[in-house]
Each structure stands twice: as structure tokens, then as C-alpha cells.
Design goal:
The chain is built from 7 helices and 25 strands. The strands form 5 sheets. Strands 1, 2, 3, 4, 5, 6, 7 and 25 form an 8-stranded antiparallel beta sheet that branches.
Length: 372
């Protein structure tokens, strides 16, 4: 492992890497309010390219009217929002580049990290000057809640202290390479924080910078894979497949007549919404293996036709529809109610300058993970 060969002291590592880390402030004006209409979200980001690209969190900048970046030397500049993805909670900004250029962070390989490896976070907690905290990787591929059927983003779990204002800042390995983007904490725990793997960001940054968004196909269905043997304990007609629990209004699935669930029950501390369709096959491929199911869903593109085999009430039927582009849904933006916090901090009024802030689709549901 490269990190085992890095012997640079932590103070020297901070001195070398911190110039690439920036303070991000994003101003919003609520036209529906009479007073206290202006709020500013405060967080962190880091420069990733010679042409002034800055990577940060979506929840800091999405829907904001004015975005500014304060560099390590205290210089403040306006930033242009090139692209944003609330689902993976990533955003790409561009700032002007002076003749001498900007220092940029070195991106590492998040697939190479191991549990127990030492990591550090650099950011601007509560809008303070750059701060370094340290800890270890306490979990990898952390999918919360633990259901493989929501195609959620696998997060890096660490015990590195993360506070409001750290959102969008880098999580570093011992060599000073960025292996994650800090995004959230577990509110009821002590030092359980989460970071988006940098390899995920590497894959979508070009699309965000180019198109302004990530294009995903939309089924409009959420639920979970089930086995009829497990569900047989409630003495209801069941089949192996994907239990449809909710259907998004206006989605291709709704227009095709796919039925959502309506009866909530708990089995072994797991909640199910029964009464909806069970998808037993997609394009004649049975849904009886979680890994194959995930690969199948991720293989579809916008515009493709899909054929679902549906089971409900001892009857089987087929529906067919074309996949449209997945829109940004209300659930992508709402704070979640499950006791986790985002790591971007909102202030009213403006903070002073620091020199003197499971779905069938490829979606990220954060039932236990939020942003701070």
C-alpha cells in the first residue's frame, strides 16, 4: 500500500495539502419570506484541476443564487456552478485562475483503502480557518440502510471528527491523497462520519462539468428483493422478485400501471409495504440474485424499452415502457428524518469573511445518513 510508505509528518502534510482546500459560501434568498430572507450555507471544497475546477457537496450549493470561494491565502472570488448531482451529493465549481495558477489536490484511489488505515480531514468547521482532524477508516462500502436493492452509494465510514462546515472537504490518506469527500455524520453516535469515495467523483466529474448533471434512466419504483419463503409466514400470495413498495408520480412505471404497496408490516425488525406488484423478471431475466439484479438495473440507458413481468394476487401480467431521464425528486433535497446530519452549516445573517460556511433507479436514499 502506498500509504505504508509515506513518512511525511502530519504538520508537513497539512502545510503541503491545505492550500488546495477552500472555503465555500453560498447565498440563498427566499422570495416568499418578508424578513430573514437571506441565508448563507458554509462548507468546504478543494481544487482538482489546473483550470480551476473545485469539487464540493451538492447540498451546499444547489439552488443558491451566489457562490463564492475563499482561497487559503484569504483571497475571495466568485465561483460558477458547472454541474450538480443531489443524488451523489457532488457539485463542480469553476473559479478564475491567476497567472501563477492554483495549488490542486492529488486524487487517490478509494478502492485501495483498508479498515484501520489512518485518515485526515481538512476543512472549515463552523466557518473557521482551515482545521485538520484525524482518525481511521472504520468501515468501507457502507450502505445505509443495509439494503442492496436501493442501489445506494457505498460510503467510507471513519471516526475522524467532522463538524458543520466540513462538508465538501477532502478526506486524505497518510500520503495526502484525497480518497473521499466528507459529507455526513451519524447524529446520535460519537465520531461516526461518512465520506463519498473519490473514485465515484472521478467517474461523474467529467459529466457534471460537461453537461451540468448526471443522466440516469428512470423507472420510478422503490422497494426491495424478497423471497417467497420468507414472506410465506404472513400467509399471503408471494413470488420471488422485487417487491414494489412505492411508485413515483409521473414516472414511466406509474404510467404503465405498476401498483405500489399499501399495507405496512414489520418482519424481524424490517419494514415492508405489501399489496403492490412483485417484479419477477425484467426483459425475461429473473430477479432472484441480488448481484445480477444490480448489474441489470445499472446496464439500462435512457430511451431503452423494458418489459416487466409482474405478479400480484396469484396473477401474472406484463407491462412495457421506455425509460426516461430521471428528474431531481423532492426526496433528493429534503433533510431526512432519521437522525443524521449534513455537514454544511447555514447561517443567518451572512458569516463574515474568514480573514477578518432504495430505489430501482440509480438513486441514493439516505435513511440513516444525512448531510450536515
Amino acid at each position: 500500500m502506498a500509504s505504508l510508505e509515506c513518512t511525511e509528518s502530519i504538520p508537513e502534510l497539512f502545510k503541503r495539502v491545505s492550500p488546495s482546500v477552500v472555503l465555500v459560501t453560498a447565498l440563498a434568498i427566499d422570495p416568499l419570506k418578508i424578513s430573514r430572507r437571506v441565508s448563507t450555507a458554509v462548507g468546504s471544497g478543494f481544487i482538482i484541476s489546473d483550470d480551476g475546477l473545485v469539487l464540493t457537496n451538492s447540498h451546499l450549493v444547489f439552488g443558491r443564487q451566489v457562490i463564492a470561494v475563499t482561497l487559503d491565502d484569504g483571497h475571495r472570488t466568485q465561483a460558477k456552478l458547472l454541474g450538480v448531482d443531489p443524488i451523489f451529493d457532488l457539485a463542480v465549481l469553476r473559479i478564475p485562475v491567476p497567472p501563477e495558477g492554483h495549488p490542486k489536490a492529488t486524487l487517490g484511489d478509494s478502492d485501495a483503502i483498508r479498515i484501520g488505515e489512518e485518515v485526515m480531514a481538512i476543512g472549515n468547521p463552523f466557518g473557521l480557518e482551515q482545521t485538520l482532524t484525524r482518525g481511521v477508516v472504520s468501515g468501507v462500502n457502507r450502505i445505509l440502510p443495509e439494503s442492496p436493492m436501493n442501489l445506494m452509494l457505498p460510503l467510507i465510514q471513519t471516526d475522524t471528527p467532522i463538524n458543520p462546515g466540513n462538508s465538501g472537504g477532502p478526506l486524505l490518506n497518510r500520503c495526502g491523497e484525497v480518497i473521499g469527500i466528507n459529507t455526513s455524520i451519524m447524529a446520535e453516535a460519537q465520531n461516526i462520519s461518512f465520506a463519498i469515495p473519490i473514485n465515484v467523483a472521478k467517474n461523474i466529474v467529467p459529466e457534471l462539468a460537461d453537461r451540468g448533471r448526471v443522466i440516469r434512466p428512470w423507472f420510478g419504483i422503490s422497494g426491495k428483493l424478497i423471497k417467497k419463503e420468507v414472506m410465506g409466514i404472513i400467509n399471503m400470495p408471494m413470488a420471488n422478485g422485487f417487491l414494489v413498495e412505492t411508485v413515483e408520480p409521473g414516472s414511466p412505471a406509474q404510467q404503465a400501471g405498476v401498483h405500489a404497496g399499501e399495507l405496512p408490516i414489520m418482519i424481524a425488525e424490517m419494514e415492508f409495504l405489501l399489496g403492490g406488484d412483485i417484479i419477477t423478471a425484467i426483459n425475461d431475466q429473473p430477479l432472484d440474485d441480488p448481484d445480477r439484479f444490480v448489474q441489470l438495473i445499472r446496464s439500462f440507458k435512457v430511451g431503452e424499452k423494458v418489459r416487466l413481468t409482474l405478479y400480484r394476487g396469484n396473477e401474472t401480467r406484463m407491462v412495457e415502457f421506455s425509460l426516461t431521464e430521471r428528474p431531481i425528486l423532492p426526496g433528493d433535497l429534503r433533510p431526512n428524518p432519521f437522525g443524521t446530519m449534513l455537514t454544511g452549516k447555514s447561517y443567518v445573517p451572512l458569516l463574515r469573511d474568514r480573514r477578518g460556511s432504495g430505489a430501482l433507479d440509480s438513486n441514493v436514499q439516505r435513511n440513516r445518513v444525512g448531510k450536515k
